[in-house]
Amino acid sequence: MRTDSPQTIFRKDYTPPSYLVHTVELGFDLDPARTIVANRVTLSRNPASKSKDLVLHGEEIDLVALRMNGKTLAPGQYVLGSHTLTIPKAPAEVTLEIETLCAPELNTTLSGLYVSNGSFYTQCEAEGFRRITYFPDRPDVMAKYTVMLRADKQRYPVLLSNGNLLEQGDLDGGRHYAKWEDPFKKPSYLFALVAARLVCQEETYTLKSGREVLLQVWVEEGNLDKTDYAMQSLKNSIRWDEERFGLELDLDRFMIVAVGDFNMGAMENKGLNIFNTKFVLANPRVATDIDYAGIEAVVGHEYFHNWTGNRVTCRDWFQLSLKEGLTVFRDQEFSADMIGTASGRAVTRIDQVRTLRQAQFPEDAGPMAHPVRPDSFVEINNFYTVTVYEKGAEVVRMYQTLLGREGFRKGMDLYFQRHDEQAVQCDDFRAAMADANGRDLAQFERWYSQAGTPVVTASTRYDAAAQTYDITLSQRCPDTPGQTGKLPFHIPVAVGLLGADGKDMALALDGEVVGATTAVLELKEAEQTFRFTSVREQPVPSILRDFSAPVVLEYPYTDAELLHLFRYDSDAVNRWEAGQRLAMARLLKLTAAVAQGATLALDDTFIAAQRAVLVDETLDAAFRELALVLPSETIIAEQMEVVDPHAIHAARQFMRRTIARELAPELLAQYQANQTPGPYSPDAQSAGKRGLKNLALAYLLIDPGSAELKLAQRQFEQATNMTDRAAALSALIHSGEDVRASLQSFYDDFAGEALVVDKWFAMQGAAPNTDVAAVRKLMQHPAFTLKNPNRARSLLFSFCNANPSQFHAKDGSAYDFWAEHVIALDALNPQVAARLARSMDRWRRYAPALQDQMRAALERVARAAPLSNDVMEVVSKALA
Ligand code: PHE
Ligand code: ZN
């Protein structure tokens, strides 16, 4: 909780630590009510610092004893602040012995040492280690750790920490111990311990070098039937990092532990990754295709951090994207390579584009907009954002687009050569990329320093006589809080030209043969013209292929051109994009028509294009599904000056209904044709089929009283996997029929599976017929609790973020609900509360009647006391 007024921390104020740590020996006497932590740490004065004050961080811990170089420090020899312990004018070489107390069972923040389902877990990123012991808790202080754990043997039979197990044994009084040593230097945020009643799936795995390593996936007893996929994903990750980047696992032992109470997805603690159960547990009965894909991605992500994050870490938290953007990029490439086909790769890319538009572009245009490398923050936990992660990954991807795969690999190699076991900055990564390739990437720095989504405007001119085709690209970037007058970015714009036959033209730029059917134009000025030569006919340009930069592209495409691209573009991302543009133009017109009370109509051309894709058997099912999913209500809202969520909802529903009616026979045929009989497999091909089939089912159930209700009912009852069962239930819920019996039977079947109960809440929270009264009623359900982040997210976040037509109820009742629960959550878990607080980010774009009520709700939260720094930062920036 906030004790003094929140302070803004600035990147420009960075100073090196006054002391560096060599070794840390930690002793834990674990007890839920009263854990004793003994910390013996050796430090030396840092020659790079002018200060002789030894500053340690500490929060919510009680100091019991403090000795320096063997002598107890008298109260006058140190200063105990609310969040620091300072020893002024400390000697050059220091050994500190610090004993503190904490109460893990009272820790509801899930940061530091806490209890989940009766066992102990830690979470130290970003600043949780200071909730365990006094320490210079900053990532540029790297040290070697030895850890002794002591706990009751019956209740906590498994004692884990980073690195290698040195010894274990029994103690008096039914207790036991385990001693661990991490051979690598690490920052404190990578420390972890687990003391729990768990079981594991384990395996010895042989690295390419021939060295054998022990892999373990630890879960609660009843979940041992759900660890196979995580283990398989871990082995795939190890192999992939060896092959693609020449990076080997540096430990003899690598552990994954699943915990039910966790704020984020997972955490890359050295050798001891701790995961939200959501990203470990899967079997066909309880997990969907999306869950399986999530597990593969997150297991990969955390494993890849071992090099990008752990071996080379961040100098300070402003550099967070150095590890996160790079590691997201790596996990994206891993997932794409696991599918293996070009079309599968494109499907993963389209998913990434959707996430950016759904979440990152709005963030970049809202009150919390910040550069990939922020300049300031109040609470670092608020900066684990889609900008730092996903836009950061786009920035890394652009290096690869500019330098090629080989050039990118050279840059990575140089990065590790220069910076292994160091804490560095985003600039160091950029320098490695530039130096390894002899390239000037100075201007590329603006991707790190300037917030906001750049807009690239294209115009074209074909000269039939000269056979030239000019593409003029110009760029601008809107102002963001605290940043005006942006300078031009270095933007790779991948372009192909389609002929009337739908085929890619051979390309030449200013007379030089490109040698590929896609050219990467490097836009560096405010405006530049690129000339394609020997262009025999007027082409249709396919611009920003593979989404080569995280920008908004404006080009006055005609419907005819878009239809051409939608039918022929060899670049699957732009093929999909053409369909999205066709849909968006119509959705915006329909939204305006709804608002004006005009009659709604949808043209046959659009329907025909949708039909053509739906039945095109040469296309992957997964691609066809993506092509048929209309832009979300959130993405439509982002295109409007003044957002009318009800009109958007009505317009989109009208379009879906019309498509459903016009394409009913084809949808039914696809439903039948894409069944996946036989045992469930999460592979991309099968998942794609299920995706298309279930999209068809959802369409078939849109019309009230649909004749296909029984189809969904049958699928719901007979499904042999969760993907099909949940999709059927969701379609039933969205049909608007009375589905209480189905909901009840689903709940009864899966009441013991927390992650499935989360789905049950989430489906209802996001259904357009769930109003705020219904959500309040669901919160009365015995299975609901605000204390578990997954559960809180399942209902509250799905309602506030994924159900816009109800969240924006005209009477403002859902805004009151939001305020009430941001405040309630804040008392338990500020990090989760601050995420919920972000639901109001875009409030200024709504019609005045809604805006006033949203402001009132924000003000209500801002006035609440006490309020965490986390929530205070979000609401005060929203109101600013
Ligand atoms: N570093 C984690 C990841 O991205 C995320 C995380 C941040 C987890 C903070 C917990 C707390 O892999
Ligand atoms: Zn990460």
TrEMBL record:
Which source organism does the UniProt entry give?
Answer: Pseudoduganella aquatica
Domain Peptidase M1 membrane alanine aminopeptidase positions: 229-447
InterPro entries found in the cross-reference section: Aminopeptidase_N-like_N, Aminopeptidase_N-like_N_sf, PepN_Ig-like_sf, Peptidase_M1, Peptidase_M1_dom, Peptidase_M1_pepN, Peptidase_M1_pepN_C, Peptidase_M1_pepN_C_sf
UniProt cross-references to Gene3D superfamilies, sorted A to Z: 2.60.40.1840, 3.30.2010.30, Neutral Protease Domain 2, Peptidase M1, alanyl aminopeptidase, C-terminal domain, tricorn interacting facor f3 domain
Family named by the database record: Belongs to the peptidase M1 family.
**Key word Thylakoid present:** no
Q: What class of enzyme is it?
A: hydrolase
Q: Which residues form the Aminopeptidase N-like N-terminal domain?
A: 27-190
UniProt-listed Enzyme Commission number(s): 3.4.11.2
> Does this entry carry the keyword Transport?
no
GO BP terms: namely: proteolysis
What PANTHER family does the record point to?
PUROMYCIN-SENSITIVE AMINOPEPTIDASE
What region holds the Peptidase M1 alanyl aminopeptidase C-terminal domain?
559-880
Domain named Peptidase M1 alanyl aminopeptidase Ig-like fold: residues: 452-555
Keyword set for this entry? Aminopeptidase, Hydrolase, Metal-binding, Metalloprotease, Protease, Zinc
Reactions it catalyzes: Release of an N-terminal amino acid, Xaa-|-Yaa- from a peptide, amide or arylamide. Xaa is preferably Ala, but may be most amino acids including Pro (slow action). When a terminal hydrophobic residue is followed by a prolyl residue, the two may be released as an intact Xaa-Pro dipeptide
Q: What is this protein called?
A: Aminopeptidase N
UniProt GO molecular function: alanyl aminopeptidase activity; metallopeptidase activity; zinc ion binding
Give the cofactors, semicolon-separated.
Zn(2+)
Role description:
Aminopeptidase N is involved in the degradation of intracellular peptides generated by protein breakdown during normal growth as well as in response to nutrient starvation.
Q: Which SUPFAM superfamilies match?
A: Leukotriene A4 hydrolase N-terminal domain, Metalloproteases ('zincins'), catalytic domain
